[in-house]
Amino acid sequence: MMENIVTGPRVDVEPDILSEGCCGSQDCENKSLKFSDLSLEDVRKMNENFIKERNWDQFHSPRNVLLAMVGEFGELSEIFQWKGEVSEGLPELTEDERKHVGEEISDIFIYLVDFASRCHIDLSKAVIAKMAANAKKYPVDKAYGQANKYTDYQ
Amino acid sequence: MMENIVTGPRVDVEPDILSEGCCGSQDCENKSLKFSDLSLEDVRKMNENFIKERNWDQFHSPRNVLLAMVGEFGELSEIFQWKGEVSEGLPELTEDERKHVGEEISDIFIYLVDFASRCHIDLSKAVIAKMAANAKKYPVDKAYGQANKYTDYQ
Amino acid sequence: MMENIVTGPRVDVEPDILSEGCCGSQDCENKSLKFSDLSLEDVRKMNENFIKERNWDQFHSPRNVLLAMVGEFGELSEIFQWKGEVSEGLPELTEDERKHVGEEISDIFIYLVDFASRCHIDLSKAVIAKMAANAKKYPVDKAYGQANKYTDYQ
Amino acid sequence: MMENIVTGPRVDVEPDILSEGCCGSQDCENKSLKFSDLSLEDVRKMNENFIKERNWDQFHSPRNVLLAMVGEFGELSEIFQWKGEVSEGLPELTEDERKHVGEEISDIFIYLVDFASRCHIDLSKAVIAKMAANAKKYPVDKAYGQANKYTDYQ
User: Fold this and answer.
1) Greatest pairwise CA separation for chain A in angstroms
2) Cβ(B19)–Cβ(A120) under 8 Å?
């Protein structure tokens, strides 16, 4: 199935997206969840193939994709809207709701990758550059334990 | 510098995030931009280190991060708000504006990775699963060249 | 029916929300659409009664309502996401889609009124104050025909 | 000053937008805040004049205004992003922050009114119609004290 949309998938098709056995407690060993092996380029390529196969390039202008992303963002927010504060690992949500969260953040990510491509921006380089810029904007010695905006450190 | 926030960066620190030489024309060879080598786990690890060094875990509850993502989304939208329709590669924007777009989509992506971690969701697996689900929801033979919602194909 | 949710409605219950006869052309007489008589306080009161009758106050914390508003915003954006640029009066949309737009902007407005109330902010006064501030930020002689940010005029 | 942007303002120009004396306690008499006298049409007219004076109609296409609204939404979310849950009346925020909230919800409202006008939708009628529809979707006897989606009541 996946062969249609990506060459050489490195992750199984119907995985359990939730961290196994994670309980949300302070000393849970699974707390520092790792992501499975997948590159930004893998996602870009999968998405490119998906869209080409369906002849959808015509619809994916930058602002169309931008608004599509807002739409997915709204769907994600709806899951949380009446929940009040929720804890790490989302123990307050049902398993269906947690699965739904995984679907919506995936949709946002796929559109984000698509948007970067439409803008001819290398998302990998952009992220590295931004992380470096953030490190300068928020020096460890000044920003430690503070939620201030970076302008307060200048 | 980068050594502080990530072990073994595979991309240069101050890169030109924009695809070189891309001109926006239909037959531009650079059109099918590739992303540089970077994995979702690389980004997760960079972000985890960044936050730990600053003792910011206390602020990153799931809904806090969700709202922070909405904030970045707003900043991205502001760049496009008075532009009318824009073309692939954003030739209508200045170079500063294109760089700004790269910064904002990076911020969204970093928060998205952070949010997935807080939710204990393996974003790599979630994306693969969603791409497979999308392929089923939008069969090529029915969805070809159509912008309908998937419910129209059921 | 409406008597349940508001005292003394000044607008019919099932109105045609779309401007009659407006054709989208440059010289259409209906172009300067007027809104029917309704005050912000009317909407606040309607919403307050609606929520009290359903014992929903417990769910309407400020951040819950904020996320609910993001959700409605996403639904509005979805209507426009694959449309490309659209014209005044939305002639490119079907009548059902235009009606849907009316529903979503109403949901956003109702949540906005609710949010202001939860924050103990007098939305009427706030709007008047902001319009006055905007007039100062964008002096007519400098901002005429310009889409610049206000910081360019300081 | 205001005479430039609206004829016959019914609210003072530089008001205190915050409810006087409200303390956030359960039995505060000011809890049921009322909005000052202002109609949706007043806001529409103010905004129309503001834009005409600056020759800005050319920028206010429906999707431009939609994205501008997303931008303001982001600014509102930023105020709340690191706050955790906040209480009615926003006692956890500084007075400057509360004032800022008033500015951002005003910006959202002004763009919403502008957007409705561009779509040729009578926002007053649309809101009344949506409140009536909501009352049918969420019958008091079934929805009392429940945060379910309306589809659960059908």
Assistant:
1) 53
2) yes
**Residues D7, D46: Cα–Cα separation, whole Å:** 8
B–C CB contacts, 8 A cutoff, strictly below: 12
Assigned token pair, A31: 């707390």
Q: Tens of pLDDT along A37-88?
A: 999 999 999 999 999 999 999 999 999 999 999 999 999 999 999 999 999 9
Nearest to D64 among B72, B75, B82 (CB): B82
Lookup: tokens for C143: 């901002």
SS (H, E, C) D17-49: CECCCCCCCCCCHHHCCCCCCCEHHHHHHHHHH
Amino acid at C43: V
Q: Which pTM does this prediction carry?
A: 0.86
Please indicate whether, in this complex, the C-beta atoms of A70 and B77 are within 8 angstroms of each other. Answer: yes
Min Cα distance A97 → chain D (Å) is 13
Q: pLDDT tens track of chain B, all 154 residues?
A: 333 333 333 444 344 555 443 444 445 455 568 999 999 999 999 999 999 999 999 999 999 999 999 999 999 999 999 999 999 999 999 999 999 999 999 999 999 999 999 999 999 999 999 999 999 999 999 999 998 888 888 7
Q: Which amino acid is at D132?
A: A
Count other Cβ atoms within 10 Å, centred on residue C81. Answer: 23
8 A C-beta contact, residue D105 and residue C40: no
How many C-beta neighbours within 10 Å does residue B126 have?
Answer: 28
The CA angle A30-B47-C62, to the nearest 5 degrees, is 85
- Residue A85 with chain D: CB contacts under 8 Å: 84-85
Q: For residues C46 and C40, what is the distance between their CA atoms, to the nearest angstrom?
A: 10
Report the candidate in D139, D149, D133, D124 with the shortest Cα–Cα distance to residue D39.
Answer: D124
Of A1, A47, A128, the CB nearest to B38: A128
String of DSSP letters for A92-147: TS-HHHHHHHHHHHHHHHHHHHHHHHHTTB-HHHHHHHHHHHHHHHS-HHHHTT--
d(CA D123, CA D112): 9
- Residue A60 contacts residue B66 (beta carbons within 8 Å): no
b/e code D79-89 from CB counts within 10 Å (16+ = b) = bbbbbeebebb
- Among residues B47, B12, C97, which one has the least CA distance to residue A124? B12
Closest CA to D51 of B14, C131, C18, A80: C131
Question: pLDDT for C28-87, tens place per residue?
Answer: 455 568 999 999 999 999 999 999 999 999 999 999 999 999 999 999 999 999 999 999
Cβ of residue D38 closer than 8 Å to a chain B Cβ: no
